[in-house]
Design brief:
heterodimer; A: 230 residues; alpha/beta; Rossmann fold; 4-stranded parallel sheet; B: 91 residues; mainly beta; SH3 type barrels; 5 strands; globular
């Protein structure tokens, strides 16, 4: 079995779309939560393939793209400072601020490092006691436990030169704001794996179904989850 | 940042008083913290997210997920800069 081929199987996608067309009985407005989902929808034209009754509205998106400009500029200002080792996940390197991006700052001589984990920054801080090691701590709730553990470990180990520039965003307030808006039209959410755990609690409170969409970078055949809707 | 990658625990370690493991991701070995999954042991397959093991998976599930991620070219973060490289001098 080559799993990716099956997810991109046109015949299978056509069959699923057909079933959705036969199943849907009323208009639905769905919101996908994750930027990776939005990317897949737009890339494969899923919103145009779905029956007219099913409308997809793009949701809060990826924390990389929704990090405020002011925060990006702050990160860049810190990264440019001598004596600083600025660490970030790779996907932040090309996000533009008011004046360039981290990749450019690195090219101009700034000490910018791509890290896999905040714990890598802690190692750097121990290895370079004369430097200020700063980690760009972005993300939704899902990256918060890792950042918290790195802070806890820094304290336990007496590391004094480790810093976090924190820009965490929460999913429930964003989704709640949408649902409680007087002009809200969203009737259900498509939630990817871990984000779903944040949105699922809202199901009961707002009486809104939340459907599991497996994997952020979903392939077209995953649209089959919408066949759950009447 | 968003994807958890499956790997096999090949070594258990204590690092500065913290439970850590060496995890083999299809040939690439990285460290992972086990503080959020203390029951994980040698030979277990785990999903690792930003350097933390978050759940155990069975071997077949791990192999399937890894194959999909490789085909989708989503394994770049395993090859992020090594943190202990020589300091970069700022001019």
């Amino acid at each position: 079995m080559k799993y990716l081929d099956e997810y991109r199987d046109q015949g299978l996608a056509a069959k699923v779309l057909d079933e959705i067309r036969r199943t849907v009985t009323r208009p639905w407005t769905l919101m996908e939560v994750c930027g990776g989902q939005t990317h897949s929808i737009v890339k494969y034209g899923l919103d145009e393939l779905l029956p007219a009754e099913v409308e997809l509205v793009h949701g809060p998106g990826c924390p990389v793209c929704v990090t405020p400009l002011e925060m990006i500029d702050r990160a860049h200002a810190i990264a440019r400072r001598p004596g600083v080792i600025f660490c970030s996940f790779g996907d932040m390197l090309r996000v533009p601020g008011s004046n360039g991006d981290l990749f450019q700052i690195k090219a101009e001589g700034g000490d910018v490092r791509v890290v896999y984990s905040p714990l890598d920054c802690l190692k750097l801080a121990r290895a370079h006691p004369g430097k200020q090691v700063v980690f760009f701590a972005i993300g939704f709730e899902t990256t918060a436990p890792a950042n918290a553990m790195s802070v806890w470990q820094a304290r336990a180990q007496g590391v004094e030169n480790f810093y976090l520039l924190v820009s965490h965003v929460l999913v429930p307030p964003a989704v709640t704001a949408i649902l409680e808006s007087p002009s809200n039209r969203v009737q259900a959410f498509l939630g990817p794996g871990h984000v779903l755990t944040r949105v699922a609690g809202l199901e009961r409170h707002h009486r809104v179904p939340v459907l599991l969409w497996i994997g952020e970078d979903s392939e077209p055949a995953h649209v089959s989850v919408t066949q759950q809707l009447p | 940042m968003c994807l958890a990658i499956p790997g096999k625990i090949v070594e258990l370690q204590q690092n500065q008083g913290v439970k850590m493991a060496k995890v083999d991701f299809g040939g690439v070995c990285r460290e992972a913290c086990l503080e959020y999954l203390p029951e994980a042991g040698l030979g277990d397959y785990v999903l690792v997210h930003v350097g933390f093991a978050i759940t155990r998976v069975d071997e077949e599930e791990a192999a399937r997920t890894y194959q999909i991620l490789r085909e989708m070219d989503q394994l770049a973060e395993l090859h992020a800069d090594e943190p202990l490289e020589e300091p970069h001098e700022v001019p």
